[in-house]
Amino acid sequence: MEVQKEVRLTSGMESSLRLPTIGEYYAGKNVFLTGASGFIGKVLIEKLLRSCPNVNKIFMLMRPKKSQDIDQRVEEICKCPVYDKLRKEQPNFHEKLVPIYGDMTIPELGIKPEDLKLLSDSVNVVFHSAATIRFDEHLRIAVEMNVVGVRKMIILCRQFKHLEVFLHISTAYANCDRPFIEEMVYSPPVDPQKLINILEWMDDDMITSITPKLISNKPNTYTYTKHLAEHLLIKEGSDLPLAIVRPSIVGASWKEPVPGWIDNYNGPSGLYVAAGKGILRSMKGDYRGVADIIPVDIPVNMIIAASWYTAVTKPSSCLIYHSTTGSVNPFTWGELEGVVMNFWKKVPLDSCFRRPKAALTSSWFLHDFYTFIEHMLPAYIADLGYCLIGKRPRMVKIYNRLHKAIGTLTYFTMHSWEWSYSNLDMLTSHMSTEDKKCFYFDPRGLHWPTYIENYCLGTKKFLLNEDLSGLPAAKAHLRKLRNIRYCFNTILLIALWRILIARSELARNLWYLIIGLMNRFVKFFRLTSTIHKQ
Predict the structure, then answer these.
(1) pLDDT digit string, tens, across residues 409-437
(2) What is the C-alpha to C-alpha distance for residues 310 and 148, in angstroms, rounded to an integer?
(3) 96-138, pLDDT tens digit by residue?
(4) For residue 305, which of 323, 325, 327 has the smallest C-alpha distance?
């Protein structure tokens, strides 16, 4: 089944009528959000409360974690730096956040009857963001979270008496086995229910063995299950007011709430840190391939605006919105590498392992060669040094984790895609001038070098908690590493040359010639200095 992109207003005169602004629509509304503790979830809460201050309540599906109950988790989330701006404008914003006990892996989400009644009587807007985003997740877990979780949400939403929109956050790579992706739900490789049925009786080893055949041209279980989830949503939730937003690789914020804000090492964030620390020296990727990174505030604004449009115009079909940059504002991995490396040389991280210098190559041979020479060899030497001074070896373990992370991203750094944007342009055309400014989601105005520099600075400030006051010491450490490198290269060159001299008359004569020229240069320099002083 394929659902074509389509916009039909319920009345011919409706397009000429003034639609309420986004702020006006959300006034007094109650929102139900899954994935509230995730990266997108935090920014979504902040933007909704700050730009739609009259929203009533935000109910958040949460589970206890690390000995914290759901109330303690909300308190911890509210202390996050992402809410600093909101905290100044609305000191009591936390009073609008209502945690609801639940878990995506539990039957009926584990919601208590009294909470279910509260939601049923109150909720107007649903944002479904919860998912496992691990690319190498076991298929059983990925299906349970990403596919079965959508079915549970459909069943739950049918009980909401005042539901006006159910927006599902998918991924632009749900159909990454296609070079051009339209705003539609494509037929899945297998019926989701059939897959769910076979996973019930298979053990984990059997599932692992057949996973490559099941996902076929998909690179991982994440994109595979996200594709299935979209199909299941359209098929089983056709009676609900649906919308789908597909962001690409979600990165640090562009403008709001703080330029460069990031709270995780997923996607390019961990690679930036590894490159800045001098750990990452080689990565597999297409130098001319498009790095389709989207700042988190762009899809968040689109989510809020798309939900508004779905609720006020009631389109006859589920509209899909792409939040990507590749087709409208492309930036290549090669350009990205240049900006990142130049930034880390100007604003280095503290206590770098080596000087920042990373190379992007599409050659498997060169990548494997660089990995051995530039990664594993220094790692083993460093761990040997740690052992000699009585410290615990760690560099080999760090590099193994890094290589695993790189491996999951290689498919995306080696391929490029194009997406259609008809619904993005349509949505923009229905928004007021003020809403376009407040809830911007068109990536055409993104200036990549500035954004990437802010992104790198964000990893330094928000992930590593490094203060810019330590920049002089970081630069001094970088100069020290440079001097060590020069000394090592010089000693190595002399050692190799001496070996050659011992075996070659020509090399020996050339060596004596170079030494003689150097002596003459030194004598001339001294003589010139003496004359100048006189």
Answers:
(1) 999 999 999 999 999 999 999 999 999 99
(2) 24
(3) 999 999 999 898 899 999 999 999 999 999 999 999 888 889 9
(4) 323
Q: What is the distance, to the nearest Å, from the Cα of residue 162 to the centroid of all Cα atoms in its chain?
A: 34
Cα–Cα distance measured from residue 235 to residue 239, given in angstroms and rounded to the nearest whole number = 9
What 3-state class would DSSP assign to 430?
Answer: coil
Q: Pinpoint the alpha helices (H) of 53-190.
A: 70-78, 84-89, 113-122, 139-143, 149-157
Structure-token pair, residue 105: 């892996």
d(CA 57, CA 122): 9
Q: Are 350 and 466 in contact (CB under 8 A)?
A: yes
Burial class from Cβ neighbours inside 10 Å (0-12, 13-18, 19+) for residue 234 reads: buried
Cis peptide before 20 (omega within 30 of 0): no
Give the Cβ contact number of residue 207 at 10 Å: 16
Q: Which residues pair with 167 in a beta bridge?
A: 127, 243
Rg (Cα) of the chain, in Å, rounded? 28
Longest CA pairwise span in the chain (Å): 98
Distance of CA 190 to the CA centre of its chain: 28
pTM metric for this prediction? 0.88
Kind and range of the H or E run holding 168: strand 165-169
E strands along 268-358, which residues? 282-284, 293-295, 319-323
State the amino acid at position 90 in one-letter form.
Q
3-state secondary structure of 63: coil
The domain ranges of the chain are 14-258+291-330+417-441, 472-533
State the Cα–Cα distance between residues 469 and 517, nearest whole angstrom: 46
Residue recorded with tokens 């400030």: 461
Looking at the structure, give the CATH architecture of the domain made up of residues 14-258+291-330+417-441. Answer: 3-Layer(aba) Sandwich (3.40)
